[in-house]
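Appendix B. Chain record.
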Amino acid sequence: MGGRHRTDELEDGFNAPQPAPRRRGGRGKVFVPLAGAVALAVLLGVAAFVIVNRDRGCAGDELALRVTASPDIQPAIVSIADGFNKAGRGVEGRCMRVEVKGATAPTVANSIANAAPTMDLWIPDSSLWLDQLRSKGAKIPESTGSVAQSPIVLVASQTVVANLKQTVGEASWSGLASAANVADPDGLAKKVRVLALDPARNAAGLGAMLTASGVLQQAGKEDQLIGALKQLSRSLARSPEALLSSLDVKSGRAPLGVSSEQSIWAFNANKKPASPAVPLYPAEGTMNLDYPLVITTTDPEAQQAAQEFAKELSSEAGKTALRKQGFRVDGTGGTVLAASAGYAAKAPRSLELPDAKTVASMTQSWSRLNLGTRMLALYDVSGTMALPVPGTGTDRMRVISKIASEGLRLFAPDSEIGAWEFATHLNGKGVDYREAVSLGPITESVGGVLRKDLLAQHLGRIRAKATGDTGLNDTLAAAYEHMTETYKADKINTLLVLTDGAGNDDPDGGVSNAQILNKLKEQYDPAKAVSLMIIAFGPDAPKGKRTMEALAKATGGELFIAKDVLEVRKFFLEAMKRRLCSPNCDG
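Structure tokens predicted for this chain:
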């Protein structure tokens, strides 16, 4: 409009909001008394809330108590919290409201490591987690007691329990370990398939590992323990429910697992499997999941609120709610743990939880045993390998091949293995070695054939070179350099030599015994360890023992002299043991 701006428009052309015209008389007058009535009702409501809550002992601002509980006990805690909230309990005149959420202990541990946890009260499934957190420097308060208990037991499907008892005998940790021993594949492992829970993520899995290790170490069966731990690392279930579900999977071997007693009850109650899971109580006793109460808040009122809720958890009503969910309280279970379903009326003998140092040592051992294998095998194909082995009807080459084949059976699917042969002038003049199978994952396809099958095929056709001498030192120098250059930190890197034990015998010279020993000492790096393991077989093995032992020790490795093919199983366990002490093993 000719140089003038409309006052009812904004700069961008949008109309400014106009006030609504006032109503006069009529029904419009009702709004004033109605608004007053609403306000009065609100005030009366607030007053009523205050009066009611005063009668219940609280008023004013609400005080929320944030509880984080292990998922298995969460339903019971929620049930108890609902009753507690309805009772209108208060602290310092403020009404309490308990809020419960579920989270696994490893999840809570991560939140504690990264920031202040958003909880006032924590109920993990085991005190073992508290010890682990403290060992890593976390300032975790002492627990104020145990809410409930659930023993860690063995478990099997009802349909196989009778057969298992005939095969394994009385339920025991030693029987479980025997069935799981990777170094005894022709024993109970042929009839029993053992399932486990990851000790790094599950308290029942951790407790089972600690209990079994304590029982076996006390019985002097450390080899069996190492073999069992290695095998169990290959058969981990992702969760208790997954483990229990797999018990009913048809197989040629009877499945046997570990679980908390309460998890078995919850699985049967919720999933209603055709063949229920049945608890088997170990003869040696067992550890309990103890569900400690940990007050994590530093706020005085929240601390007082946590103590009030703790009283509710230990009340008769609280104990009843916990027993209804398959837990034991003060060693006593509820009617849901019926004898007709295989549950013991009396709790099994309780073994003490180990101290924090023992827990830390075992979890470290578990981690080291679970590191994958990366190994380059060097096979001696020199002329002496064609000599007969007295009393066997075969030659040294065949025996070494059988030893290697037996060893190959013991390695996990995530292993990386390769093979070289050595004698003299195998790959042209002056080159004493040649690659037979490239180093890599044994489950990897190479030219359409799995590497594991290529390794087996190579052992089936390997032959001694009639005119070949033993160019061991030149081969070691090249192979050790290759392994150090291609080192992988997430694996145990090993150079394996299988020979008749005479040591280096190279008429054309090459690297001397003193030179190879110095070279290995110079190249060995404890932070990136590549260990030399030598298996020698035959009458010449004792002659070369001193030299070969020095080579192995220079790299933190070991020499084994075999008298029998099946001794390789023992050697495998010894190599696993060395993982636990490397790079500071004695002798």
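Further analysis of this model is presented in Appendix C.
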